[in-house]
Description:
Layout: E1 3-8, H1 18-30, E2 37-42, H2 45-54, E3 60-64, H3 82-87, E4 92-95, H4 98-102, H5 107-119, E5 123-128, H6 132-136, H7 140-149, E6 161-165, H8 179-197, E7 203-207, H9 215-218, E8 226-229, H10 236-247
Parallel strand pairs: 1-2, 1-8, 2-3, 3-4, 4-5, 5-6, 6-7, 7-8
Helix pairs in contact: 1-10, 7-8
Amino acid sequence: xxxxxxxxxxxxxxxxxxxxxxxxxxxxxxxxxxxxxxxxxxxxxxxxxxxxxxxxxxxxxxxxxxxxxxxxxxxxxxxxxxxxxxxxxxxxxxxxxxxxxxxxxxxxxxxxxxxxxxxxxxxxxxxxxxxxxxxxxxxxxxxxxxxxxxxxxxxxxxxxxxxxxxxxxxxxxxxxxxxxxxxxxxxxxxxxxxxxxxxxxxxxxxxxxxxxxxxxxxxxxxxxxxxxxxxxxxxxxxxxxxxxxxxx
Length: 248
Ligand code: PEP
């Protein structure tokens, strides 16, 4: 099964930061495991076009961190549509990152974003996850189910959707779910996705404080098809070590 290592740069990077991608690309080109995984990097909008052009014929795929939910062009200041993102050569977009949910992205908006991104030939990495209080109150499964069923539909092409499970309490905190917690949660997510899509399920990634030291914990969980990596993706060494240690 193809695995994904997706690096979410968030608000990080200037044009010279391309050297991080160059190092990752050099590593990949000689790595004996290279055909087992796909690398996607989501830099900020300011770097999207330069990076997408530079890596057009290479094996690092460029994606955006968000997109606007409707219209090719509009009068909405600072909005960027999936059409514009695809037009500069990016191929993926994150949708529903908890940062954007916190800023007001509702299920209704997210559904439009997923739909419109797919229509514009972008692959969607749809992020879901419970917060600390929801976890404490044993609401994790109901929160995740709601986030999935309110947004995803069987008519969406599951091959162009990847679901990233990112518990909010884990993002940027150094805390990760235990092996059994993640085993249960990821099977619950896959089961829910199979119900939505009837035949088969999109791939499921884990995100939240993944680094080169803890990545081995996730290796045995077959439901986890890869990782969405924030902090550690800003260092080529850490990102490369995550891949190396995953296959060790
Ligand atoms: C993220 O914000 O998508 C993320 C996974 O961050 P981190 O790896 O830094 O927890």
